[in-house]
Amino acid sequence: MAENEADSDGSETTPPPMFDKKEEAEAAFWRLKKASDKSREERVKRVLAQEGEGLLTTLGRVVYISACMLFDGVLLLEVPVSMGRTLAAWSLYVVLLVVAIKLQRDLYEKWFDVDISPIDFDRQ
Fold first, then answer.
1. C-alpha 18, offset from chain centre
2. Are 112 and 57 in contact (CB under 8 A)?
3. Is it the case that residue 3 has pLDDT exceeding 50?
4. What is the distance of C-alpha 124 from the center of its chain?
5. Which residues face 64 on adjacent strands?
6. What residues form DSSP beta bridges with 12?
7. Is the pLDDT of residue 18 over 90?
8. Going by C-beta distance under 8 Å and a sequence separation of 6 or more, which residues neighbour residue 18?
9. Residue 61 CB contacts under 8 Å (≥ 6 apart), including other chains
10. 43-86: pLDDT as tens digits
């Protein structure tokens, strides 16, 4: 079908609106930059909020994450290995892994979460 094809009543149809690629690329860039700035600001706030915490809390965070990785990667893998690497064993492993990660995440937020609400950067 041609762009300037006439309708049955003789009037010409108008072509669909064309998108300006440069305009769309610039809009996409600014959306990406805004999202990037927001995540960067949250990271900076978390670092600033951790400045006042003690050495034991910082080391505890590292030890906790390391212990979780060892538990998830070494101990839980014993389930499918000991059960013969069957579909049921791997299914049980996945279920246990999801439950373990959820529990570990909840405990991490309870013990090591930092409050970034009092930190506010001047937005102009």
1. 34
2. yes
3. no
4. 27
5. none
6. 6
7. no
8. none
9. 112
10. 888 888 778 778 888 899 899 999 999 999 899 999 899 988 89
Distance spanning both ends of the chain, measured CA to CA: 51
Count Cβ atoms below 10 Å from residue 80 Cβ, excluding itself.
19
DSSP state of 115: -
Report how far residue 118's alpha carbon sits from residue 106's, in angstroms, rounded to the nearest whole number. Answer: 23
CA distance 26 to 21: 9
3-state secondary structure of 12: strand
| Neighbour tally for 45: CB within 10 Å | 18
* Ramachandran category for residue 10: left, alpha or beta (phi over 0 → left; psi -120 to 50 → alpha): left
Query: Residue 51 in 3-state DSSP?
Result: coil
How far apart, in whole angstroms, are the C-alpha atoms of residue 119 and residue 101? 29
Q: Phi-psi region for residue 6, left (φ > 0), alpha (ψ -120 to 50) or beta?
A: beta
